[in-house]
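The instructor's notes for this session suggest beginning with a concrete chain rather than abstract definitions. Hand out the sequence below and ask the class to guess, before any prediction is shown, which regions might be ordered.
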Amino acid sequence: MKTLLPARNRDTLAGIVFVLFGLAFVIGAGAYDMGTAARMGPGFFPRMLGGVLVLLGIAVFAVGARAPVTAGLLRGFPLRPLLAICAAIAVFALLLEKGGLALASWALVMVSTAGQRKPHWIEAFVAAIALTVVAVLVFAYGLKLPLNVWPRF
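After discussion, reveal the predicted structure:
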């Protein structure tokens, strides 16, 4: 497969993308009240996150601009992990209301595991159980979000 971008250009491109996303958050949150550090408004977190992304983007861009062009090459695009993560998010969204948080969280981990070249299904199963328990404890019982924990029939 032909190379797409030199490594230096990958970092500079990533820096530009971070800056653009950060600016989008800052501009998008402009309509919301900022509040104060003691009483944060709905615009506080998006603006802070956007500012951090802009700073991170500038740093990544600077490192990429100073790197030698011979630092390596970008080969092809990892399509399998991208599709697995998108599918996992879609499965989670589809299962959450009727299947409950426990089933949706477990399915999220299991479907995203398919994005690996050599998935370790037993480890993924154990991790899915552990993350499901944490998600249920934190979101359903700790934060008391109005979510179904178990499937509704």
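Then share the key points. The two ends are 50 Å apart (CA to CA). The mean pLDDT is 83.
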